[in-house]
């Protein structure tokens, strides 16, 4: 008899949801994480009573009522609606691309006028089957929006030419012919009151956890504790990089406490210009409508990723996808290890998608007990 049914490597949303569901059917887990805290990248740090999103801004949004109900079991969500602005050559524009943005860019006052400009530019600069981010953006929204709000931000964010990035990345952003600055199209949206730690605490209640534990340094010993492993770390690292390195983009965060009530009037201000080294400034208190006399801001700097650094964004180009496929095929030959989450599935996942993926994988696992 092993001590646990499952060893869960990584205390992010994927692992915590998985362990929570297993617990409901009487299976035990040990969750380990190499960081000094649980929660993975949704972890919030309390800085003078402001929840600081330590690993970048996390705004929960989903169209799936089941997932919305799922997270609402653990926390009450406020009615925060993400509506960032973007600074470009000294002027602020609303995001996502909507009638406010088009008015700011061209002075157009009706959807018809905006559509006429975008269609003309899309025809002139766009292509039929966009194969990369630049072609996709030009075909979708035209050259002015691309030049003002996309190109420099994207190339700074990814450290790559927009012509070498996959088209799907830009499709994350809505294009709208209404005066609506909501960054997401999803039906449900908000920030958990008390921060994301409340959700993690709810998920791992009565489950054993250990922080500051490096799986790879103690692998044999840790594996011996459980019948099965759920691995949520980097899949290439798991296989000791035998098919080569997957590429990621990393980030550096610089936070500052300011003795003023309201610094920038928005939780997120993007900086498009390539001359500014950061992509955005986060003012965390606005996620929870904070009324403190002070504020905390964080500048987010994209970084070249090398081994040993935090891997934030998978770079899903063709080359990396081909490498990932080799790891995935190999992973599927290991019946006692379940791979899941952003790093193990090498996917640009949002929180609701991770939860969806974890719930569906754990469901399969539970069904397998009876077959
Ligand atoms: N993007 C952009 N300009 C912006 C914001 C985003 O061109 O002001 C592009 C950029 O390529 C980015 C992608 O849209 O990587 C997705 O943006 P999102 O805000 O979804 O990124 P995240 O918050 O996940 O970093």
Automatic annotation (TrEMBL):
<feature type="domain" description="UDP-galactopyranose mutase C-terminal">
    <location>
        <begin position="149"/>
        <end position="348"/>
    </location>
</feature>
<dbReference type="InterPro" id="IPR004379">
    <property type="entry name" value="UDP-GALP_mutase"/>
</dbReference>
<comment type="similarity">
    <text>Belongs to the UDP-galactopyranose/dTDP-fucopyranose mutase family.</text>
</comment>
<protein>
    <submittedName>
        <fullName>UDP-galactopyranose mutase</fullName>
        <ecNumber>5.4.99.9</ecNumber>
    </submittedName>
</protein>
<keyword id="KW-0274">FAD</keyword>
<dbReference type="Pfam" id="PF13450">
    <property type="entry name" value="NAD_binding_8"/>
</dbReference>
<keyword id="KW-0413">Isomerase</keyword>
<keyword id="KW-0285">Flavoprotein</keyword>
<dbReference type="InterPro" id="IPR015899">
    <property type="entry name" value="UDP-GalPyranose_mutase_C"/>
</dbReference>
<dbReference type="Pfam" id="PF03275">
    <property type="entry name" value="GLF"/>
</dbReference>
<dbReference type="GO" id="GO:0008767">
    <property type="term" value="F:UDP-galactopyranose mutase activity"/>
</dbReference>
């Amino acid at each position: 008899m092993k001590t646990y049914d499952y060893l869960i490597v990584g205390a992010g949303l994927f692992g915590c949801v998985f362990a929570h569901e297993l617990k409901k059917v009487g299976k035990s887990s040990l969750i380990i994480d190499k960081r000094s805290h649980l929660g993975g990248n949704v972890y919030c740090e309390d800085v003078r009573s402001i929840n600081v999103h330590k690993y970048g801004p996390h705004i929960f949004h989903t169209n799936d009522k089941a997932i919305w109900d799922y997270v609402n079991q653990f926390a009450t969500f406020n009615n925060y609606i993400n509506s960032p602005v973007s600074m470009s050559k000294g002027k602020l524009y609303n995001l996502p691309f909507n009638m406010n943005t088009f008015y700011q860019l061209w002075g157009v006052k009706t959807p018809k006028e905006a559509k006429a400009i975008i269609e003309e530019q899309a025809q002139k600069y766009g292509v039929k089957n966009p194969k990369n981010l630049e072609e996709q953006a030009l075909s979708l929204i035209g050259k002015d929006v691309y030049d003002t709000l996309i190109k420099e931000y994207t190339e700074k964010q990814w450290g790559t030419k927009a012509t070498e990035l996959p088209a799907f990345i830009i499709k994350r952003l809505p294009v709208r012919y209404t005066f609506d600055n909501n960054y997401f199209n999803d039906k449900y949206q908000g920030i958990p009151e008390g921060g994301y730690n409340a959700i993690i605490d709810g998920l791992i209640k009565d489950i054993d956890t250990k922080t500051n534990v490096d799986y790879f340094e103690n692998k044999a010993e840790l594996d011996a504790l459980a019948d099965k492993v759920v691995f949520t770390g980097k899949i290439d690292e798991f296989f000791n990089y035998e098919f080569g390195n997957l590429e990621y983009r990393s980030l550096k965060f610089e936070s500052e406490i300011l003795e003023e009530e309201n610094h920038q009037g928005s939780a997120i201000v993007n900086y498009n210009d390539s001359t500014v080294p950061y992509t955005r400034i986060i003012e965390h208190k606005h996620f929870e409508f904070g009324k403190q006399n002070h504020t905390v801001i964080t500048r987010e700097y994209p970084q070249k990723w090398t081994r040993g650094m935090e891997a934030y964004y998978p770079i899903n180009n063709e080359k990396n996808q081909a490498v990932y496929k080799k790891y995935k095929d190999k992973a599927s030959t290991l019946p006692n290890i379940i791979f899941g989450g952003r790093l193990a599935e090498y996917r640009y996942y949002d929180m609701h998608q991770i939860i969806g993926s974890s719930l569906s994988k754990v469901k399969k696992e539970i069904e397998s007990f009876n077959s």
